[in-house]
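Show me any protein, fold above all:
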Amino acid sequence: MKRLLAAAVAVFALTAPLLAFTNARDAAWRFDWPDETSTAFFARRIAAGEPAAAEDPDINVLERRLHPRSVNVRDGALVPAGFVGLPVLLGTVGRVLGNTATLFVVPLLAAAAGFALYVALRPILSQRHAALSAVLFLFHPATWYFVAFTHLPNVSFVSLLIISAAGMALARSKKKHALPLLALSGAAAGLAFGIRLSEALWAVPLFAVLLWANNRRFSALPAWLLGAILAFLPTLLLQQALFGSLLAGYARFSEAGAALPSESVGGLPAYVFPFGFHPLRAAARLWDSFLAPFWWYAVPAVVGAVLALSAAWGDPSRKRRLFARGALVVSGLVCGYLVLLYGSWQFADPLMLAVNTVGRSYVRYWLPIALAMSIAAAGALARLEGFPELRVRVVGRVLLAGMAAASFSLVFFTANESLLPTAYRLMMYRTMAEKAQAFVPEDGIILTQRLDKVFFPERRVIALEGPLWEDRQALELVAAQGSAYRFYYADDLDDAQRSAARAALQKQGIEVTAATFLIGEMYPLYELTISK
C-alpha cells in the first residue's frame, strides 16, 4: 500500500502542474480565472519588494472603475478583492526562488498533502484504508483539476490543513519532538487561515477538536498557537495595511476608502450564511455539481459511509464506538455546513453553470467534502482488499483503476474546461494579449466584460458589469472622459449584439473608429472616440 501511495503521488506530481508548465515557458503568464490573474499580480509585486497596493492616479478620476475583476480599489490603489495569504505565500517564494517557482508551489503542497493525509489517518485507520484515502483524494476530480490552477486558493488551503493535521499526529507518536512538530502544525494552519480566513467558522472548531484528541496536555496548545500566530501575522498585518481592517477580506470600499459591509460581513446569521440559507437550492447544487458529475466517487462513498455507520454502532469496544460516532458526527456537521454555505450561493454568471462541469466554482469550494468522500470510498475499497479471495481483491483494484481513469478523462480531456483545452486557451490568450498590446498604447484603457484576464496587467482595464451598452456608468464615463483618455472596447458578441452595441454607443456620442481582431475574425478590439 505504501508503494501504491508513492506511485500515486508521483503520477499526481507529474500531471497536476500542466498549466504551470504552459505558463513557465513565457514571462507573460495568462490564467483562465480572474482570481488567478489577481493573485499573480499582487504576488509578483510582493516578490519584487514593491508595495502590494498598486497606486494609479486615474482610479478616482475614472470613478473607481479602473480595475479588472477580482481586484478592488482603495485610496486610489489596486488591492486584492480577497484574503492576501496566497499572494503573501507565493510572493515570498518568488522573492527567494524567482517568480517561476511560484507556479509549482500549490502542486507541490498538494503532493505533500497526499503523504500527509496518510500520516494523519494512520493512527485511526488501517494502513490499507489510510493509503487508499490519500490515493483517492489525490485523484478526485476536484483535487486533480483545481491543483492545476496554481493561483487559486482552495487546494492550497485544504493541503495546508491536511499537513497541519499530520503534524498533530506525528507529535503524538514522537513525544521527544512533540513541541516543534506542534509548532510546525500550527504554522501550516496559520498559513491556511491566511489564505481562506472565511473558512475559520468550521475549520477552527475542527482543529480544536483534533488538537485536544491528539495531545491532551496543556503544553500542546501554546506551541501550536505560537506557530499559527507567527505564520498568520504577516497576512494579518498586510490586510490591515491594504484594507484598513485586520479581517476585511472580501469587502467593498466606500469613496473615502473605508470598508463597507459585504455579503460576508454583518450580524451572526449573515456571517454564518453570507449567501443566504436555501437548503433546497443547496441540495440541488450538491447533486448537479458534485455527486452526479463524479458518480464514480459518489457511489463507493455512500457504500463506505454505510459501512462506517455499521461499524460505529456495532463495534464491541465502547471506546472505538464512541470515537467512530464522534468522527462521523464531526465530519457530517462540517460537510453539511459547507453544503448549505456554498450551495445556497446563486452565482451571478449563469454561463459558469451552463458550460462547466468539473470547473464549476462549487467544486473547488467543496474540496473538503471531496476529502470526506475519498475517505469514505476508500473504506469500501479497503473492505474488498481485505478479503482472502484473490478475485475479490482483483475487483477492488479494478474499481480503483477505473475511478482513477474516469477522473483522468474528465480532468484532462472530455469537458470544455478540461486541462488540455484550457492549456490551449492559455496559449490563445497569450496571442490575443500580444496583438492587443500592439494595438493599444500603454496609456490606453480597455473596457471588457470577460477578457480582462487577457489584457491585464500589461494594459489597464475596466471590467464591465455586463455588455457595454447595458453598463450605464461605463458609457457615461467614456462619454465624459473620452477626450482625456484613449478608450478601447473588446467584445465576444455575435453580429446582432454588435449592431445593438454600436447603436447604443452612438446614442452616447461614442463612435468606433478603428478595430483589430485578436484571433482570426474573432474577438474584435475597437478604439472608441467621442463624436460630439
